[in-house]
Amino acid sequence: DNRSEIRSRGDKDVDNQHLQTEEKEVVSSVATVLSDLCGPGEWMPMKTLHTELMDQFGNVWHHSRVRKYLTADDWSVIEAKGRPWYGLLGLLRKYPEHFVINTKSKGRAISEFVSLVSLLS
Which residue intervals make up region (Disordered) (predicted)? Predict the structure, then answer.
């Protein structure tokens, strides 16, 4: 039936627009936190960024957004490796024009740091 196919395509467009809006709002929030707390050339540990975002937005954002970007609930234990910011990290990697991510390994410990491109240039 063509009508249901058109309707489902329209639903997908609405879902995609909602996801893009959600991502833009999260990216904007992250950029604001980084620009407020980091000086030029400074990096923020992902753990610190996660804590700041939870403090500022944990009770403001819809619970599904908090779950997606600020908890590891939507990810396997193997993927997240105990990092509640795993979803956020994936989102920031989608925007290399805004964010630079630096990963350091020491033995089995992995530390991730993030900065705004504008703070590093």
Answer: 1-23
Residues constituting the chain: 121
Residue 20 CA to residue 2 CA, distance in Å, equals: 27
Domain spans in the chain, listed from the N-terminal domain onward? 11-119
**Per-residue model confidence as pLDDT tens digits over 58-110:** 999 999 999 999 999 988 988 888 899 999 999 999 999 999 999 999 988 88
pLDDT reported for residue 11 = 61
The rounded radius of gyration (Å) of the Cα atoms in the chain is 17
Are 7 and 14 contacting, i.e. CB atoms less than 8 angstroms apart?
Answer: no
Name the burial class of residue 53, with classes exposed (0-12), middle (13-18) and buried (19+) by CB atoms within 10 angstroms of its CB: buried
